[in-house]
Amino acid sequence: MNGNDIAVELRESLCEDCGTLCGDNVDCRVWVYNGVEYTSPPKELIVDAILREVYNTGQREPERKAYQLPENLKKYFIAKAYKDKAERCEKGGNTI
Does the pTM of the predicted model rise above 0.70? Predict the structure, then answer.
């Protein structure tokens, strides 16, 4: 929200769905709200984040760092690209 993460804390856990898609073990984000873990951000968390941004106008803007792709997503995209290439080669009778 305005360049700020909506989650109060960052957690990840092994994601079998993404692992199946890319053929490797991948950790995906887990959203924590009121002590409960979700695989996607619950509406209440999003609403709270919006309200925090709207009513936090008098506070000093936090220093922002340039976005960097998290390691788990780098691993996912590399493995997925490799798996996709392998599948295309198998269909065409080629090898990697």
Answer: no
